[in-house]
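subagent[fold] <- orchestrator: predict structure for attached chain, return tokens only, no commentary.
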Amino acid sequence: MVKLSVGLPVRNGERFLAETLDCLLSQTFQDFELIISDNGSTDRTIEICQSYDDPRIQIERQDTNQGAAWNFNRVFELSKGEFFKWAAHDDLISPDYLERCMSALHHEPESVLCYTGVQVIDEAGDLLEETSVTTNAFALQAHKRFREMVLKQHPCNHIFGVFRSEALRKSRMMGKYMASDRVLLAQLTTFGKFHEIPLPLFFWRRHPWQSIRFMKTPQAYTRWFDPQAEGQFYFPNWRILREYHKVIAESDMGWVDRLKCSLWLWVWPLRYAPWLGLDILRFLRNMVRKDLR
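subagent[fold] -> orchestrator:
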């Protein structure tokens, strides 16, 4: 059994995939398997993957696009490691990223996730800016960690850190709805604390072909997670609130933490009222358009 599994869900990633694979396979920490799930790509993605002769690589190919949520969950289902990391086909990490994260988790058995600081790069790999994903998710109290994930605005780059596989197996994993990665991170804070390495070792690539650039509406975002949602109308922000409530209801936290987490969810609708209202307005507009047809 390998110590670490790296899961790479990809669809039409030919532009940056080879660079990412080279980066992962040249890590100073070598005891890992690399699981690639090609989600119905129509470009050279599968050819690039198959060009690598490395026994650590396992490739699975889907004939049709199953959606990002399904593909993220699939690479974890295929994993065997005690620890797990998701990797995006267009991002990079420093050569010692895995080694540093594994060392941190070894020395902090109470931590369920380790991540690092972030540098934003462009399509050529040039630095655009240095950012931080710092949150108080390393607090001892679960309700404080939950509050940070739910109420604080932050990039969701934590999701590309190194997890304890046991914690992910206890979770609800990626859901087929917008911002399910945020809900997953919120649930993980109820299991244990996060560890942040305050060095910019993760390189998040910003480029014209990013999936997020084509998600102009919440409905488009939802369809990216789940292609079966095409033509259906959702209340995406209300769904996020409902999922946060489910996290608390299913948690085995003590009653004090559960109560305080519930109180934070009374703050959430106040803070995000415009988005909740926008869901309702979009629904009403959609109904009017149907009536006019």
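orchestrator: received. Logging for downstream: The first strand starts at residue 4 and ends at 10. The chain has one domain: 4-211.
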